[in-house]
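Lab notebook, bench 4. The sequencing result for the construct came back, and we need a structural model before the next group meeting so we can plan mutations. Quick request posted to the team channel:

Model the 3D structure of this chain.
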Amino acid sequence: MRIVLLGAPGSGKGTQAKKLVERYNIPQISTGDLLREAVAAGSELGKRAKTAMDTGQLVSDDIVLGMIQERLAKPDAKSGFILDGFPRNIPQSQSLDAMLARVGQPIQLSLLVDVDNSVLLKRITGRRSCGSCGAIYNIYFSTPKVPGKCDKCGGTLQHRSDDNEDTVTNRLAVYEEQTAPLMSYYKAQGKLRTVAGVGSISEIFDKMCEVIEAQIRPLATAMKKISEATASAKKAAKAGNAKKAKPKKAAAKKKAAKKKVKKTAAKKTAKKKVKKKLVKKTAAKKKVAKKKTAKKKTAKKKTAKKKVKKKAKKKAAKKKVKKKAKKKAKKKAKRRR
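Done. Here's the predicted structure in token form:
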């Protein structure tokens, strides 16, 4: 909720701005307050403003806009703000719009508190304030019980020297010349709304709230609908993507299952091959072992046969020797005879 309050001096827009701050929990941004705070804080913009004021010059629009931009950067201004006392003319309004467009916080509503000049004269010239407690009265609209005395504390009521008819008439003339054209500026943008600033403070405030609700809330509702539509469209898109993704996932799962089956089959065949190889190797080893054992057996048989033959030869040789010995012995025996 971003509002510019318009109204002539004495229209009561300052009082209403404070009530709007309480109702909508958004800050009132007054350029006068900003200038005083910046000067007191000694900020860069405050120093520049003080230099201008000390030399009797008006504070430039650039400095004021810089202060407003710094104020809008604070957290409490994220939900909106109420500008009071600025802009005062069309060039300032144009510069303000450009700055707010840059920061993404354009004005949504320009609210004019409209009061007739004759009423404004009575409000300002008839204004009296208590010097002790600051209570405000008006000799035309809210008179004290005892003339010149405060109803609350009994203090003396004072009248500001500049609250005279000549000064007020001059201030209203300046407003009409410089600030009144802003009504046409904001009307052309479709942002101007007017509230009659006549009646009690609470009655005027209720009228202002009605205008604000009628202007701002439909926009907020429309924005909410847009965001909801966007959210539902995103959900639908996600659902569509999910549906499309399901067959892909199923196909991917099938492929993965097939791959697993192939892998298990390949592993099984590999195991079978390994087993076959092992069987072949063991069979070959057995054959080799059998051959070795057979060779050993045949070798043993051959050696056994050889031994038998050798023994037989030895026996035969011994027999021959014995026979020869017998023959010799017989011959010897014959000779002796």
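Residues 55 and 137 are 36 Å apart (CA to CA).
Will bring this to the meeting.
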